[in-house]
Specification:
alpha+beta; 2 domains; three-stranded antiparallel β-sheet; 3 strands; about 15% strand
């Protein structure tokens, strides 16, 4: 237990000081809570899609190649796809990435 001064002027000074400190702590707490509400999107990165279709360049951007979701040879022209879409594209002759081999992963070999 702390020992407080017995006289009125020093007690009033302590109250003024502590109110100021409490205000600063409440502002810091509000800022931390605001950051916490924004942080969940930064905490856990989204899981990459299992399969990707790489779009070509040009008018209509037709599919150009297929990849697994964790392929290192993908760019910003890839869109997520499901396994059935990838199988269908492979059976239609779409080239598979030579690095991640989605055709081997799905069992759709030539």
């Amino acid at each position: 237990m702390s020992i407080l001064p017995p006289d009125l002027p020093r007690l009033r000074t302590l109250v003024t000081y502590l109110r100021g400190e409490l205000g600063r702590v409440e502002k810091a707490l509000a800022a931390a809570e605001e950051q916490e509400t924004l942080a969940p999107s930064r905490r856990a990165p989204k899981e990459p899609p299992a399969w990707l279709v790489e779009r070509g360049i040009g008018n209509g951007r037709p599919p150009a190649r297929v990849h697994t979701g964790d392929c290192r040879d993908t760019g910003n022209r890839c869109v997520p796809a499901d396994a059935d879409q990838i199988r269908q594209l492979l059976t239609q002759g779409m080239p598979a990435c030579i690095h991640c081999r989605p055709d081997a992963a799905l069992g759709v070999l030539e």
